[in-house]
Amino acid sequence: MMELVEISLVLLALLTALLCGGVWIAVSLMAVGWVGMQFVGGNIPAGPVLATTIWGNSASWSLAALPLFIWMGEILFRTKLSDEMFRGLAPWLNWLPGRLMHVNVLACGIFGSVSGSSAATCATVAKIALPELKKRGYDDTVSLGSLAGAGTLGILIPPSITMVVYAVAANASIIQIFLAGFLPGFLVMALYSGYIIVWALMNPDKQPPREPKMSFREKMRESAQLIPLTLLIILVFFTLMIGWATATECAAWGVLGSLAIAWWHGSLTWESFWLSVMGSTRVTCMIMLILAGASYMSTSMAYTGIPLAVAGWVDSLHLSPYALIAALTVMYIVLGTALDGISMIVLTTAVVIPMIKQAGFDLVWFGIFVVLVVEMAEVSPPVGFNLFVLQNHERQGFQHGRTRVAAVLLPAGGRGCADHDISWYRDGRSEIFLPRVNTNKRGRHMKPSGYLFGLALAGALALAGGPASAQTKWNLPAAYPADNPHTENLVLFAKDVEAATGGKLQIQVHANASLFKAPEIKRAVATGQAQMGEILLSIHENEDALFGIDVVPFMATSFPESMKLYKASKAALEKKLAAQGIMLLFAVPWAPQGIYAKKDINSIDDMKGLKWRSYNVGTAKIGEIVGAQSVTVQAAELPQALATGVVNSFMSSGGTGYDSKVWESLDHFYDTQAWIPKNYTIMNKAAFDALDKPTQDAILKAAAAAEPRGWKMWEDKANWYLDQLKAKGMKVLPPSPLLVTGFKKVGETLTADWLKKVGPDGQAIIDAYKKM
User: Nearest Cα to 691, choosing from 483, 552, 532, 458?
Assistant: First the structure.
């Protein structure tokens, strides 16, 4: 534990030094992540991990709405529609202390409920509000402070990506957490506005003069231009709330509506259009680059095990319930200085949730508590993401002669106090939170001296660091929740290995895609980024058709048949994987696959137009044949996709439906038993060869025990999962004869396509299987 404390202090000191040295924020985060990787040991290649992490976290459908919302804000700003909006609001807020600064809070609440993203909310509102408030003479510090704080409403007011991640990790109800977020969200908005009122009453000299009083008719005349924008915001908000559109679709409609309103006003020109495109591109690139750096540093933290160790240390204190909450608050505040909110949740819930259950706290209540603490992380230095977003919009606020970074902790109970702390950041006496960015006259480039200083410091610490002890820990990334039978079996496998080697080899199972996402795990193992991993092999069918052997429709629809197919294909699969430097340890099946939907499906014609989740070649092809709209969504992202309406149907097992709380979005399950896919636990061959013979034997012996145990676990739980779906109110139905006939034809098409791609090797496997 002490070693991890020392590593944590080194990394935090390095990050602070880099930021104070003027190194770009994203580069600083990546540098700290790279240095952190030097403490991991086991010859983990930091460069490939960087590439895998950045690609995996950037290529996400959940981020697709971000550039669109930013573009919407740019259009409103470039075409002067934001000026008309503030002019229309001014007469109505003239009586309220703080006046137009309350627009920050209200706008963040509205955009937050639509986007579900703190970054998108902060960036969009900042582009609209900050220039107008500055032009009207409002105090910069409070304008920025209120926006930095209120921007976090994007993750508190539903629908929220952070809430979905927590609900899945904690096995809590997504709908209940969404509903529980509304009242705290409105309360936080009231606290922010309340602080603005108090500040305005105490500092009347820092506000612009009141505008002349107007009659009701004059107010209405001034506000006439608000009507189109108000209708646009209402349209975007309610289409999301009633499920007509996803967040990304709402953002697209928002962009189209903004362009239409700007054209109608006569303010849309080719110049303003191009400026809005380039402005949104710059802001999006800035945010995505910082996200990439933050994701790499979070992955580095997961490798070191620091978040899990901190949570385990808190658990070892055996605190009373309220002392536990106080300790967790401090823990999350500390973690929030170095990790983004979602990473904090994913990396700690495996330890924290059992503690919360044992203490008797409601998981829904604790979920809102966690989201509030994550909000604090969004404005906590040195990795306060909203502060980085604001830095781009208010760059001149960071051009002081020198920078002092002060340590500030936001009070957990008094959310209104957050604005007070943040508002100091441009004050002449105490410039905090955001380090100076050294720029040229255009404000675009960092001074080489700061850049070289930062990189030299990072390199020196990396060379001086390195693992302090011999490598005894391996990493095993898995894509499914901790309470899924696959993950439970992996944990037992890891314990068997540790016991057999006397603790010489410890295997850390990283559940729920907390280290790598499902499509990345196989490559991570092949390139040595992880020594072991569990993969759903069929998602790699595009790489080699043989990898899709499990999902040939209606070939093996029972556990005994699936075992026969596995035995028939095992030698060929081992040969294919061996060519990539991978060893196959064992395979464990899922339950038979069925169709989830939100309506009656009596034939494949009823599937036309559905938003169909695909995760491999077979499911994508099914969507194409039946006329559905296929969307690629991996298991870890499925709850988010369901909650936000990205998909409304998919084919999977009862276990996946249970893990994803599918009953909160869909209500039908048709038990078609189309196929039984399998998860394969694999190992890097070079890492295995580097072990001594007793350790190798211990791994192989544990793998031999894990395979039959995993098969039995799923045989025992297959029907249990269906019973749970029924208990949650879902209709679990056999497919109609017409649906069976239609799917048989689809299956014949898919089988013929697969045999054509796989060639004689695949046919030989099928022939051997049929003879068993």
Answer: 532
